[in-house]
Write the structure tokens for this entry.
Amino acid sequence: MKRIYVNEEWCLGCRLCEYNCAFANSGLKNMAQALKGKPIFPRIHVEDNGRVTYAVSCRHCDDPLCVKSCIAGAIRKENGVVKIDRDRCVGCFTCVLVCPYGALAADENGVMQKCELCLANACGAPACVKGCPNNAIVYEEREEEA
């Protein structure tokens, strides 16, 4: 299955992945109208530990803890992609607590959100990948390491 991978050594920490993600999931056609002067709620976020910057997004685990722990049954795995039914989410943050990668976060309404590979956005590829100026974020299939 294709997944998002980050090459930390190439990440500039510019946060363009966050802006492209927030715009792609805004439902609007104009980036300035979607994001200017508003707090953004991207489904990917950049971390900076002082030595290296890197983007964090859902890894669509083979056996996801978030799916197992969701008390509302709002998180499911469908065709290899972990998805959230936003209408069922009760905002309990249990998924945030169990995710070992820190990939889930609340949106402006307290409903959980995470990367769903832009499959519902008709972007062709995840918006974070398309918007990364240094190709630090890639969307590809890789061999599983033993």
